[in-house]
Amino acid sequence: MNIQIFGTKKCFDTKKAQRYFKERGIKFQFIDMKEKGMSAGEFESVKKALGGLDGLIDSECRDKELATLIKYLSDADREEKVFENQQLIRTPVVRNGKLATAGYCPEVWKEWE
């Protein structure tokens, strides 16, 4: 298993995800989205694994204006806007190769073990 956790240090669900993998002795790489964010390839891979952009967007994000604007853009513009503003992405994003989840999903991670 090659686990990557994308999140922020202050995100409660990201901390829970890290604890989930630590408790099971599964090594993971943590990527702080405030410092680095996802590369274009990682973003595409996660989007594909989640079945589209809607699975990635956090409707409860702090930037309500931007979240509202996203709803009214064309698909191509939405994708570009979300990639440029990764604070709109629901965290944690946990990747295992071509598989991915957005949010705290221990029931899915259990299937990966």
What does this structure look like?
The protein has 113 residues and is α+β, with helices and mostly antiparallel strands. The chain has 5 helices and 4 strands; from the N terminus they run βαβαααββα. β3 and β4 (99-102) form a beta hairpin.
How confident is the prediction overall: mean pLDDT?
A: 91
N/C terminus separation: 8 Å
Largest sheet, if any? 4 strands, mixed
Structural classification: alpha+beta
Helical content class: 40-55%
Count of discrete alpha- or pi-helical segments spanning 4 or more residues? 5
Low-confidence segments, ≥5 residues, pLDDT <50? none
Q: How many beta-strand elements?
A: 4
* Strand portion: 15-25%
- The helix/strand series, from N terminus to C terminus, equals EHEHHHEEH
| Side-by-side strand order of the widest sheet | 2-1-3-4
What Rg, in angstroms, do the CA atoms define? 14 Å
Short description:
The protein has 113 residues and is an alpha+beta fold. The protein is built from 5 helices and 4 strands, in the order E-H-E-H-H-H-E-E-H.
SSE diagram, text form:
Layout: E1 3-7, H1 12-23, E2 28-32, H2 40-49, H3 64-71, H4 75-84, E3 93-96, E4 99-102, H5 106-112
Parallel strand pairs: 1-2
Antiparallel strand pairs: 1-3, 3-4
Task: Label this structure with key terms.
113 residues, alpha+beta, 5 helices, single chain, four-stranded mixed beta sheet, globular
